[in-house]
Design a protein that fits this description.
Number of strands: 12
Order of helices and strands: EHHEHEHEHEHHEEHHEHEHHEHEEH
Structural class: alpha/beta
CATH topology of the largest domain: Isopropylmalate Dehydrogenase
Number of helices: 14
CATH architecture of the largest domain: 3-Layer(aba) Sandwich
CATH superfamily of the largest domain: Isopropylmalate Dehydrogenase
């Protein structure tokens, strides 16, 4: 079967910044060396979003994904006629319905091999729930679409300076200690190691594991989780041949000289992983889903309703997500 040449891009919430960032990314496709991509639906939304940034955006309606690569140099390919009225900054049920349709079809096209991968625009989960979205987020939606358990779809945040993986994601901080188990650490570390080898050409990725407590517990003086759960998990993974170390005190692990010593940091909870990546690489941060049979990336920011349509949102993370998806798709294609 001929390899898919273009990425499928889901629109995200049409009232957010994703449509205008997609439009700008297309105008910068040449200078940024972007793989051809097409958008699922939302032609009028994309046209209005481009106009809000002063972009002359030529849209090309395509009837199948394999038409996207040839059209890409002339205009932004759009697949499907589902649409809604442009309403930047004002989310609606119509917009949420379009966002869910766009996400579902993009995933289906990647799974069928008709798209090289998926790049997802940011969504507002509360709004999407009104349109029938039942998962905690897009990562879990894609795991379900691929027929995988949620724990097999691992979120990695990646930028020029740092890669991080949160062990627990959208959980209350008070619940985190009880959720950290040896089994969870070992499972996610294995997924990370395999994915970095396959998609990032890092066959022996160096994984640094953070501690949970201050100073990684100080040998049990500040909590027992580091010594009794995290440390033994790291030791077990080392016996399997993974290049892994820890637990490391999280307050020092993200200093510039420390970041040179590892390829990815496996962190214990959401903010421990996301604060450093957003501090260092906010405008170039990419959310990558590891462990799926398809390539999936997304800009590491939200819908930004407050600035939608004002022409001030940075397209850096969207461009980085498109570039990274293209690079991962090429690596998978070359490996068969």
């Amino acid at each position: 079967m001929r390899k898919a040449q273009a990425l499928a891009v889901s629109l995200g919430d049409p009232a957010g910044v994703a449509p205008e960032l997609i439009a700008e990314a297309w105008t910068r496709r040449g200078e940024m060396g972007l793989t051809p991509f097409f958008v699922i639906g939302g032609a009028s939304v994309l046209s209005a979003a481009g106009a809000s940034r002063g972009i002359k955006l030529d849209l090309i309606a395509i009837s199948a994904p394999d038409e996207a690569a040839a059209a890409f140099s002339s205009g932004l390919p759009v697949l499907g006629d589902m649409d809604c009225a442009p309403s930047p900054g004002s989310p609606s049920i119509e917009g949420a319905t379009l966002a869910l349709h766009s996400l579902a079809r993009a995933a289906a096209l990647a799974l069928s091999g008709e798209a090289a991968g998926v790049v997802t625009g940011p969504i507002a989960k509360a709004n999407l729930a009104d349109a029938g979205f039942t998962q905690p987020g897009q990562t879990e939606f894609l795991a379900d679409a691929c027929g995988l358990p949620h724990e097999d779809a691992v979120m990695m945040l990646a930028g020029p300076s740092l890669r991080t993986v949160p062990l627990t994601v959208h959980e209350p901080l008070a619940a985190v200690p009880g959720l950290i188990t040896r089994e969870l650490i070992e499972h996610k570390a294995r997924v990370v190691a395999r994915a970095l080898a396959r998609d990032f050409d890092l066959p022996a990725a160096r994984i640094a594991v953070t501690g949970l407590n201050p100073h990684a517990g100080e040998s049990g003086r500040i909590g027992r989780e580091d010594a009794e759960v995290i440390g033994p998990a790291v030791a077990a993974l080392q016996t399997e041949g993974l290049t892994i170390s820890g637990p490391h005190p999280a307050d020092a692990l993200f200093a510039a000289h420390e970041r040179k010593k590892y390829d990815v940091a496996l962190c214990m909870y959401h903010d421990q992983a996301l604060i450093p990546i957003k501090t260092l690489d906010f405008d170039q941060g990419v959310n990558v889903t590891l462990g799926l049979p398809i390539v999936r990336t997304s800009p590491d920011h939200g819908t930004a309703f407050a600035i939608a349509g004002k022409g001030v949102a940075s397209a850096g993370a969207m461009i980085a997500a498109l570039r990274m998806a293209g690079e991962c798709a090429v690596r998978r294609s070359m490996s068969g």
